[in-house]
Design brief:
This protein has helices at residues 2-28, 33-44, 53-64, 66-77, 92-112, 118-174. The chain has 175 residues and is an all-alpha fold. The chain has two domains: 2-86 and 156-174, no CATH class; 92-141, no CATH class.
Length: 175
């Protein structure tokens, strides 16, 4: 049982490293399944580094329970992730369309209700467009960041199955 408690401790370190690697990768490019898998496998290398806490735990396990350690090593070397569908963000044309719609509405209101001249109509068109475009760009950026975080969370959730598989191997060795 002590082995599983120690495993929980090093697993938390591994998950922190996985999250960091996935976040780093998502800042560089769109987080595809292949990119996520590469990041997780890069983080998994800490299990095979005898200077890392995870590697030290696995090394002690090899001394105490070689069969369980062999199973755990195999599981960690064969980490595979399933594709997480990318969430569609707010399209660029939508941002431009909303800004243009605001400009048209401003121009229409200015020309019809207020009986503005040419400059007044142009200003009543420009002001809503100038106000709406940055607001919509901010909304679009927030939606993109939210989708990235959701994708990272879903990839990390898949690792819980690997954790259960390792815990199963550790429990079987105690049988």
């Amino acid at each position: 049982m002590d082995t599983i408690r120690e495993f929980d401790s090093v697993w938390k370190k591994f998950m922190v490293m996985c999250r960091a690697k996935l976040m780093e990768k998502s800042k560089q490019c769109v987080l595809s399944c292949a990119a996520a898998e590469m990041s997780v496998q890069d983080a998994a290398s800490m299990w095979f580094d005898s200077y890392d806490a995870c590697g030290q735990w696995l090394k002690r396990l090899e001394k105490d329970e070689p069969q369980a350690a062999k199973k755990v090593r195999t599981i960690l070397q064969e980490i595979k992730l399933e594709e997480v569908p990318a969430k569609k963000g707010f399209p660029e044309l939508g941002v431009i369309g909303i800004a243009a719609g605001g400009a048209a509405a401003g121009a229409g209101v200015g020309a019809w209700i207020l009986h503005l001249g040419t400059w007044g109509t142009l200003l009543s068109a420009a002001i809503p467009a100038v106000a709406l475009y940055p607001a919509m760009k901010g909304y679009q950026k927030n939606e993109k960041e939210k989708a990235e975080k959701e994708g990272i969370t879903k990839y990390l959730e898949q690792l819980s199955l690997i954790r259960e598989e390792i815990e199963g191997a550790l429990n079987c060795s105690a049988c």
